Amino acid sequence: MSAHTSLSAQPGTTTEKEVNEQKVFIEANKQKLLENYEEASVLFKEVLKNDPRNHAAAYELARVYDVLDNDEKALSSIKIAVSLNPTNTWYQLFLADVLEKSSNYSEVISIFQELSKKQPENEYFYFQTAYYQVKDDKIDDAIETYIKIEKNFGQSVEVTRKKHTLYLGKGDTKNAAKELESLVKKFPDNISYLHLLAAFYQQQDKTEDARKTYEKILELDPTNAQATISLASDKKDSGDDSNFLRSLRAVFNEKNENIDIKIKTLYPYITKISEGDADPEMIESAVELGEILTEVHPNDAKAFSIYGDMLFHAGRDNEAIEQYKKTIALNKNVFSVWEQMMYIYAEQYEMEKLAALSEEAMDIYPNQVKLFYFNGIANGELENYKDALSSLNQAAIMAGKKTTLKVDILVRMVKPLVATGKTDKAQDKVNTAMELEPDNYRVLSANAYIATQVKDYDTAERLYQKSFSNGGQKNPEVLEDYGDFMLSQGKEALANEYWLKAQAAGGKSSRLNKKITNKGL
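The structure corresponding to this sequence follows.
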């Protein structure tokens, strides 16, 4: 309010007009504070109408227009304020903010360059100049500005790293290297700066320079994990993963080293194991490191999670489950762990455990469709049909536009509906699935299953054969259902043949085993 005073009366006196103007100005600010921006804009305009040289009113009006997203009027008003009081830094800064919205970076740069000249001791104005020069793709100008900052204020990590990044972006790797080298020269005992330089050398394939830098790190910190891992990786023979992993035991046994560095090292080997691209010796070495990780970091859920993943991909499901349980005990909020456990239980046909686990997880993740999906499968297999349909119905709603998942859910609802005497509703589910994926072998098999229930055997046979043609001959559930169909036709030998095929394809249900043992009786 005191930014503008235009006294035309005698010294020490204030005219009635000026008093009224100040009242309007005060009321305008009040409305602005109350977020009544339209009312505030009207009052600020009234002040300017009565006193066109009131730069404070022009500035406040610009701020109100900015809140109202009227960029054009905001720019016009702040320009008036700046023209009336060009030395006011706050006006200049707000003008820069408004100009930025229209991507007028060249004018913004000019504002900060001028402010830098007027206030050379203010480092902020130089940094803003460089920032907008980068946004305006004036990279060389930005580098020159950072050089000025160093001359005026001394070398700093922030400026050096910014210059390094800009040189790297230009493809000037020579100067990019010089920046990091100068940082290491100034702070020779700073391990984090040495790591920056070593990583840069690695990116540029300067293997020898990287090696020397990592050796320097180990002179300062003999147990440094990243340096040890990098040197070990550099020295290993091509494809000699087992020896490389064994060489990391000391690093993994170091309690004070960051667990994330260790985990990052293991990830590529989990991928190799999962893709089947790993020999038994390498798998054993990787698993051993995973076990060490849990012993050295017993309170970190990540250690047990990655060890569990390692065991899972190595085909050691029961051991993986134990590690996943320990993960959840430390941190329940890792959905991928719950999900992995559910896949294992489903694969092992541990339906009671699957039902209990998925139900427990629902309390933590009420919006995860897979929990309801797995819970529905488990309860269906346990013949808890009401619970199965409740979960599957919820899963179908949550599946949204995930067509393949939705089709699978609809198919899973068929047997519980038939078992509860709702064959018509089961047919409705199949019809909906047919509209989405008419050639899906599971949909065709479900349709054949319903045809069998209503004794339309010719249709059932035709649909089963079409299902087989589309991939159903490899699915244990489809094969088992066809075996049941053969039994209904009095073809016990064929029924048993298809049950055995179902078992060979991965079918593990106790129900299937009983059919094979008792030949369907």
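The mean pLDDT is 90.
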